[in-house]
Design the sequence.
């Protein structure tokens, strides 16, 4: 029974790690939930409260960074306030309206539209839009690293 639960947990963790790239899967929160459920099922003998606290904090950081990285990328490439708001709104709209491709189109289009409305300069708007995509990819890499860290530390705890 315990081996079956462990195998299922590892598979769910791997699915969560895939979710850092695939927008329809909740990613890091799924990894956290899998580890939490495993801890509960084994009586929190192997999975400690301190470990859950650490990965809980990492989960919250990953969620915040996921949304802010797109905006930070646009800002780094010179986007103004409207471009930043456009990138943020575009991220949510793209994810809701056109998943999964909307995750690429939304922030790009939102940053471009917001920046273009603000400065009426196509070149600057395109630069801000590409910055939002760079930020998005940075967020994916960050979350992928957190997911792999969680998997490795989980396996170190159970073995």
Sequence:
């Amino acid at each position: 029974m315990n081996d079956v639960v462990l195998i299922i947990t590892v598979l769910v963790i791997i699915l969560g790690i895939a979710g850092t790239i695939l927008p329809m899967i909740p990613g890091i929160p799924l990894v956290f939930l899998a580890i939490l459920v495993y801890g509960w099922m084994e009586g929190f003998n192997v999975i400690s409260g301190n470990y859950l606290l650490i990965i809980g904090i990492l989960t919250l950081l990953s969620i915040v960074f996921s949304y802010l990285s797109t905006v930070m990328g646009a800002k780094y490439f010179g986007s103004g306030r409207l471009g930043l708001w456009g990138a943020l709104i575009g991220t949510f709209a793209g994810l809701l309206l056109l998943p999964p491709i909307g995750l690429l189109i939304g922030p790009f289009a939102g940053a471009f539209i917001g920046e273009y409305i603000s400065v009426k300069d196509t070149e600057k708007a395109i630069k801000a839009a590409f910055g939002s995509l760079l930020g998005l990819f940075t967020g994916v890499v960050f979350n992928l690293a957190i997911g792999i860290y969680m998997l490795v530390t989980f396996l170190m705890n159970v073995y």
